[in-house]
Amino acid sequence: MPKLINTALFFFFICSCLHTSAQKSETFIGGNLIYAFPSSAFKTGYKHGTGIEGSLGIGKSKVYLVGTVGYQSYKAISTNPYGKITVIPVKAGLRVYPVKSIFLTGNAGVGFLKDEVMSSRESRFMYDAGIGFHFFLPQISVHYEAWKKQSSPGYTTAVLLKMGFALK
Fold first, then answer.
1. Contact 116/84 with Cβ under 8 angstroms?
2. Which residues contact 18 (CB under 8 A, 6 or more apart)?
3. How many helices (H) and strands (E) does the chain have?
4. Phi, psi dihedral angles at 81 (to 5 degrees)
5. 3-class DSSP state of 49
6. What is the pTM of this model?
7. Which of 29, 51, 95, 164 could form a disulfide linkage to 64, CB 3.0–4.6 angstroms apart?
8. Which segments of the chain have a pLDDT < 50?
9. How many angstroms separate the CA atoms of 82 and 110, rounded?
10. In sequence order, what DSSP letters do the residues of 4-35 get, joined into one string?
11. 38 burial via Cβ count (<10 Å: 0-12, 13-18, 19+)
């Protein structure tokens, strides 16, 4: 329950920041299809992942504060006793355009994970960092994403290819 309260307070803070700057800023809306490549030890138990996400944000022409919610599913290899993993990431972060069509992004938040053995979803700290190209409407980006492991030290990691759209 404390994790849920901390998550709620974090997103209340983000929403407050968005609200206070809304009158003098531009909005951002976007969505992506995701194809994930598990990395490190994660790739020994999982083949690949797929997903979808939506983003809303506010900012000026070069810097946006963005909130993202999504759904990802990782397909297990046949000998993996845990089966597929599903993740619902809820993150907030920045998207920066150093030049017109190229953006850098970083996000942090919580992921709600469940495999086929768990009886309920578990919340874990998540983060990602990426670089992408954004043309008038279409965008494509590559991200490094990680979530905190529960039973051992370290993070579970994947490289994500995201393709979608964004209006700013």
1. yes
2. 57, 58, 65, 67
3. 1, 8
4. -70, -15
5. strand
6. 0.83
7. 95
8. 1, 18, 20-22
9. 21
10. HHHHHHHHHHHHHHHHHTGGGSEEEEEEEEEE
11. buried
